[in-house]
């Protein structure tokens, strides 16, 4: 009864309702009355989800929903507060490093937000939307904040998943509310993170949740189409999956600009590290350029994590500055996993692991297209009992057939060493075999490196360049499938025999390295190259 009074229902109306108040000891014997009450409560929940501001404006409180309703962050577009000062982004382009091309492309957006009249005089149609795509951690969200910060305009952000709720229509209502606030505080930037949560191609599936997502997407399109030349609102969005977005979202007049943020090269990594080490006490012998060279493949989030882990480690060691040892330990933790100090191995297993890692390292050292060995260790990290860490000399964008072949030979070096020394093999090479098989399959089915099967690809890969392969659709016959398997087997067998041949010729060096690993557990690059000389 109190719940119904909450909605300002007159007392006369309440008396007319067929409600019976029972004590807990007396169970309800009328299912129709319970059904009516549950219907009322469901309607209340729908109102709460659709427009929580109604409760805030009326000063109402519901005990079991009070925390959610009193939280201003629950409302899209108001997570930055209720005044213009707190809506302004404090991030600028000085805080964004390693994305010079992206910043250059976004400069015209900043100029429009600062001086819209200049574009209006010439009749120029400024892009309504900017879609930023790239691998996770490359700084898409940070760049959106920096655009608003550079222009000095209001910034509204929301995740794509926050639009979709249980009740149909809630997502569309939130879109309308978000754009209404953005127009009210124009000029402004609206940022939708992970827009693929609502922007997937329509009609790909069926069901209630899909209906809600499609309505939300339709409302976004309607709002963007409603922009005029004097709206002064720019919509920015980020995604890791641009390939699955609805074409209507990407057509001219909506997301006109597409900005790609790729993994940073060595110069970009150096600039990013300069930003993240700013204000941190570094040892005198620390070179940011060397750190950038030692972190190929790292994105901005990885580099920020590297600096933070090194700082934490320095604090735990009661140091006043962050040194090389801390950065090295942090990098190994990120790449290979945390050290497992409680992992106790017997002497026989330690010997197998030592020869396994020595086999990898010796084979890689004697192959032209393998990256130089940076470190070899039999210390357990993550799921690995030992590891060999090669380090490329620079960033690579193209790979030749022999580079693939040499990498496969290096991966099989550990297995070959076990067979040569102990005349039997263990499960330690399972991950090596998996990676080698994937490389061999890619050579045959994706890159046309098979001399037997010719210049064609096999299978339509499901996935994208940022998140990798998500599966494959077969478009070839069973006979071709057998030929592909035979070619993969041939590549792997040839590589394995080559690894065994190298280790047979370099047996003394492998024995020396394995003995050093058993004694010291970790061998750095300088000591390793001295042994191989």
Describe the 3D structure.
- By secondary structure, the chain is α/β, with parallel strands linked by helices.
- It has three domains: 87-201 and 212-260, 3-Layer(aba) Sandwich (Rossmann fold), CATH 3.40.50; 266-336, Helicase, Ruva Protein, domain 3; 347-457 and 474-532, Up-down Bundle (Methane Monooxygenase Hydroxylase, Chain G, domain 1), CATH 1.20.58.
- The chain is 51% helix and 10% strand.
- The protein has helices at 2-5, 11-16, 31-50, 53-58, 66-69, 84-87, 100-114, 116-121, 140-151, 170-184, 196-199, 208-225, 247-250, 266-276, 288-293, 300-316, 324-336, 347-365, 401-411, 413-422, 430-445, 478-505, 507-520, 525-532; strands at 129-133, 154-159, 188-193, 233-239, 255-260, 373-377, 387-390, 460-464, 468-473, 522-524.
- α18 (347-365) crosses α23 (507-520).
- Residues 56-86 have low confidence and may be disordered.
């Amino acid at each position: 009864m109190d719940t119904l009074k909450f909605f300002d229902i007159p007392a006369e109306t309440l008396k007319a309702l067929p409600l019976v108040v029972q004590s807990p000891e007396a169970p309800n014997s009328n299912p129709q009355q319970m059904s009516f009450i549950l219907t009322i409560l469901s309607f209340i929940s729908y109102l709460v989800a659709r427009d929580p501001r109604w409760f805030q404006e009326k000063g109402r409180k519901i005990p079991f929903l009070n925390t959610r309703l009193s939280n201003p962050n629950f409302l899209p577009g108001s997570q930055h507060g209720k005044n213009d000062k707190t809506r302004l982004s404090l991030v600028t382009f000085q805080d964004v490093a390693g994305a010079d091309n992206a910043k250059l492309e976004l400069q015209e957006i900043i100029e429009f937000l600062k001086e819209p009249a200049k574009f209006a005089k010439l009749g120029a149609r400024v892009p309504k939307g900017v879609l930023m795509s790239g691998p996770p951690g490359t700084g898409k969200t940070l760049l959106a904040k920096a655009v608003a910060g550079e222009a000095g305009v209001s910034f509204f952000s929301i995740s794509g998943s926050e639009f979709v709720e249980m009740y149909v229509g809630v997502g569309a209502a939130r879109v309308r509310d978000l754009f209404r606030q953005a127009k009210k505080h124009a000029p402004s930037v609206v940022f939708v993170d992970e827009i693929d949560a609502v922007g997937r191609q329509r009609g790909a599936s069926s069901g209630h949740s899909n209906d809600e997502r499609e309505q939300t997407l339709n409302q976004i399109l309607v709002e963007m189409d409603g922009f005029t030349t004097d709206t002064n609102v720019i919509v920015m969005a980020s995604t890791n999956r641009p390939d699955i977005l609805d074409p209507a979202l990407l057509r001219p007049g909506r997301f006109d600009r597409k900005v790609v943020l790729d993994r940073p090269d060595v110069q970009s990594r150096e600039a990013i590290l300069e930003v993240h080490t700013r204000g941190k006490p570094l040892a005198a012998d620390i070179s940011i350029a060397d750190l950038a060279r030692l972190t190929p493949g790292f994105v901005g989030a990885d580099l920020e994590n590297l600096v933070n882990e090194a700082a934490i480690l320095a604090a735990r060691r009661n140091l006043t500055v962050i040194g090389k040892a801390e950065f090295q330990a942090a990098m190994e933790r990120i790449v290979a996993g945390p050290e497992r100090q409680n992992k106790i191995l017997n002497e026989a297993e330690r010997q197998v692991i030592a020869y396994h890692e020595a086999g990898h390292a010796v084979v890689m050292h004697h192959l032209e297209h393998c990256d130089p060995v940076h470190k070899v260790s039999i210390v357990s990290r993550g799921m690995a009992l030992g590891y060999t860490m090669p380090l490329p000399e620079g960033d690579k964008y193209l790979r030749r057939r022999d580079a693939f072949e040499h990498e496969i030979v290096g991966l099989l070096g550990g297995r070959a060493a076990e067979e040569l020394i102990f005349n039997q093999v263990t499960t330690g090479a399972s991950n090596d075999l998996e990676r080698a098989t994937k490389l061999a399959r890619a050579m045959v089915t994706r890159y046309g490196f098979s001399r037997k099967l010719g210049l064609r690809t096999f299978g339509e890969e499901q996935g994208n360049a940022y998140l990798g392969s998500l599966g494959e659709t077969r478009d070839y016959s069973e006979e071709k499938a057998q030929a592909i398997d035979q070619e993969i087997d041939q590549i792997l067998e040839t590589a394995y025999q080559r690894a065994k041949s190298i280790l047979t010729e370099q047996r003394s060096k492998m024995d020396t390295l394995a003995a050093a690993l058993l004694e010291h557990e970790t061998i750095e690059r300088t000591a390793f190259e001295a042994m191989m000389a």
